[in-house]
Specification:
Number of domains: 1
CATH architecture: 3-Layer(aba) Sandwich
Oligomer: single chain
Structural class: alpha/beta
Radius of gyration: 18 Å
Strand content: 15-25%
Order of helices and strands: EEEHEEHEHHHHEHEHEEHH
Bound molecules: adenosine-5'-diphosphate, magnesium ion
Number of helices: 10
CATH superfamily: P-loop containing nucleotide triphosphate hydrolases
Number of strands: 10
């Protein structure tokens, strides 16, 4: 098996504190993965390293079949190479409609030929509708983003990321602040997205992680504490101790 992303032996310190400690992690090209772990475990820092926001002191981050070192690329080069990231707070354009938001995201197409062969309006329209369908906003295309519920804004932002067609999508706590129905819908969106790309979801909510039904990586003190099915990792004594704070 060749992984889409292979992180090995990565460490990073902030003022002498090792936030990431000899971390190794792999994900396949169409795989859904949940990352869990207590506050301060290094989950966000891990995403910062993959997206190039933080450069590690040691280790390797290797990308795609071309074995590109992401450590040599800038944040924008990494985004163009196909890594998309969704932050906790939605950053949609509130005064624009859902359709306009998606259209803007499509214009920022990361593919190098997008500029050369400017997509025809018709194609753009079809693509917008397909993405709206994928995130469940088909009936909301003409509404301004500001009118959407918190959950709908999150889906719109996921749609805007999908418009860039990333090969790896990193999502930080998507279920926070959502109703149970919204959470279920979010699970469906992420599962669907992971059929054609790699998706990494950082999440605290165990019910949400259970519904994702994927392999789970438990982080603790900047390292992988356990990895496997949710049942496997939650039966692990080290994981139990960490979660009960012993
Ligand atoms: P998590 O997302 O799992 O809650 P973080 O990755 O945000 O954890 O943080 C891991 C540790 O690194 C925490 O102790 C945090 O305070 C520290 N940390 C993260 N980013 C920085 C930074 N830029 N400067 C100093 N310390 C940081
Ligand atoms: Mg975090």
């Amino acid at each position: 098996m060749s992984a889409l992303l292979e992180v090995s032996g990565v460490s990073v310190s902030f003022d002498g504190f090792k936030a990431i400690n000899n971390l190794s992690f792999e994900i396949g090209a169409s795989e859904l993965r949940a990352i869990i772990g207590p506050n301060g475990a290094g989950k966000t820092t891990f995403m910062d390293i993959v997206t190039g926001k933080t450069k590690p002191d040691e280790g390797n981050v290797i990308w795609s079949e071309n074995n590109i070192s992401l450590l040599k690329l800038s944040e924008s080069q990494i985004a163009r190479a196909g890594v998309g990231r969704k932050f906790q707070r939605p950053t949609v354009f509130e005064d624009q409609t859902v359709r306009e938001n998606l259209a803007m995201a499509l214009k920022n197409d990361r593919a190098p030929w997008a500029v050369l062969f400017y997509r025809k309006t018709q194609q753009g329209g079809e693509r917008i509708e397909a993405i709206a369908e994928e995130v469940g906003l088909t009936n909301h295309l003409t509404r301004t983003a500001g009118e959407l519920s918190h959950g709908q804004k999150q889906w719109l932002e996921i749609g805007m990321l999908l418009a860039q067609d990333p090969r790896l999508l990193l999502v930080d706590e998507p279920a926070a602040g959502m109703t149970p129905t919204e959470r279920d819908h979010t699970t469906d969106i992420l599962k669907e997205a992971a059929k054609t790309r790699a998706v990494v979801v950082v999440e605290h909510d165990m019910d949400f992680v259970r519904k994702l039904g994927c392999k789970v990586t438990v982080l603790h003190e900047g390292s992988v504490l356990a990895e496997g099915s949710l049942d496997h990792v939650t039966a692990n004594q080290d994981v139990i101790d960490v979660y009960l704070g012993r």
